[in-house]
């Protein structure tokens, strides 16, 4: 007797391509003339340069793109950078970062079809004493290495999308528009209608990857839309960015990605007509400063900050100061363990009746900063 068991299947293997390389190297104009200017080698996996810095203040810097031209998502597995000795650090500074000043870290992602700009700076320091100057010529071999491997499910994302600049001047921030804008919305489609009043490139790289445009609201004011293909990334500090829009009644910023924002100081301050504010998508996990964030928003009645996670938050001074009609705040996911500056956080909130918080620690913190308010644990 015998039995033959068969398992038969067909596996279709798709073609794939692995290609992570350097491209688009540009030396900054203020750099000293290099002995051997920075160039990308034939393999496109190395950049070589040689430079002499003759006096304090001399520097050499360039940017270069790391490009994933393949079909496979990549991630950083190893980062190795020259470690300067304490003595060398007195007279030389050397850094390799992303162009937004974030460090290159393991598990940073570089998805297929995307690129990421690195900035390299080597500088003869100026903030030194005479005793810090090297007493003889030095040759320093400065090496930065980063290894990419196929990405896995444990990767930590870096920004690979479009970044909005944080320049709160010109464009719709100008005097022509600022006092007449009644609504600001976001869109994850990079489409600018033909009949707009005016449009602006508000991308950090000035490559039109993030656009803003104004349309007539039908009542002598304007509606502003900020748009990009996919999420609109914000990085760094956006202090006062939407402040003093005096006619603004409504904002929907649901297409913003704010995980790399560190300061929201005065972000919406003195938006005196604001009644509707949607911040459900806000990631505040890296924000340290929310001073005066909603200060003077005297027509806000209720504000939902339930998406706020605030483990790095240190300052909420005057955060809601002057919100004279505010009756309730939802803080159900926020923590205040590291907050050390909180003076006048709820100053002038005469109608504030209810604050929803995460736990007993948050309740104890809030209860000690405001009186006559029902602080409820969610």
Automatic annotation (TrEMBL):
It holds the Pfam family DUF285. Coiled coil: none annotated. Gene3D superfamilies: Ribonuclease Inhibitor. Transmembrane segments: none annotated. The keyword Kinase does not apply. The keyword Transmembrane helix does not apply. Keywords: Lipoprotein. NCBIfam families: Liste_lipo_26. This is Lipoprotein. The lineage of its organism: unclassified sequences, metagenomes, organismal metagenomes.
């Amino acid at each position: 007797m015998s039995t033959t068991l068969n398992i038969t299947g067909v596996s279709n293997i798709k073609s794939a391509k692995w290609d992570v390389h350097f491209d688009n190297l540009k030396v900054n104009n203020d750099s000293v003339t290099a002995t051997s200017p920075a160039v990308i080698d034939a393999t496109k996996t190395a950049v070589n340069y040689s430079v002499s810095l003759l006096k304090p203040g001399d520097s050499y810097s360039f940017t270069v793109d790391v490009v994933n031209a393949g079909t496979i998502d990549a991630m950083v597995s190893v980062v190795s950078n020259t470690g300067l000795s304490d003595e060398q650090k007195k007279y030389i500074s050397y850094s390799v970062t992303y162009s937004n000043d974030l460090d290159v870290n393991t598990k940073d992602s570089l998805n297929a079809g995307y690129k990421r700009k690195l900035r390299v700076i080597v500088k003869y320091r100026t903030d030194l004493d005479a005793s810090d100057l090297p007493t003889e010529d030095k040759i320093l071999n400065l090496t930065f290495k980063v290894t990419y491997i196929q990405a896995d499910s444990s990767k930590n994302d870096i920004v690979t999308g479009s970044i909005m600049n944080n320049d709160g001047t010109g464009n719709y921030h100008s005097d022509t528009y600022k006092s007449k804008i009644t609504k600001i919305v976001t869109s994850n489609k990079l489409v600018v209608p033909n009949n707009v009043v005016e449009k602006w490139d508000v991308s950090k790289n000035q490559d039109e990857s993030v656009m803003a445009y104004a349309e007539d609201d039908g009542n002598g004011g304007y509606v502003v839309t900020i748009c990009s293909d996919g999420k609109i990334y914000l990085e760094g500090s956006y202090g006062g960015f939407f402040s003093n829009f005096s006619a603004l009644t409504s904002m929907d910023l649901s297409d913003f990605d704010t995980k790399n924002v560190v300061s929201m100081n005065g972000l919406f301050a003195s938006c005196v007509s604001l009644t509707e504010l949607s911040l459900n998508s806000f990631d505040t996990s890296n924000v340290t400063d929310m001073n005066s964030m909603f200060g003077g928003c005297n027509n806000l009645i209720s504000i939902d900050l339930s998406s706020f996670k605030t483990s790095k938050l240190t300052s909420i001074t005057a955060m809601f100061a002057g919100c004279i009609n505010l009756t309730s705040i939802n803080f159900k996911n926020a923590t205040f363990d590291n907050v050390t500056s909180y003076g006048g956080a709820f100053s002038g909130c005469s109608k504030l009746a209810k604050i929803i918080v995460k736990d007993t620690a948050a309740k104890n913190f809030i209860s000690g900063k405001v009186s006559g308010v029902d602080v409820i644990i969610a």
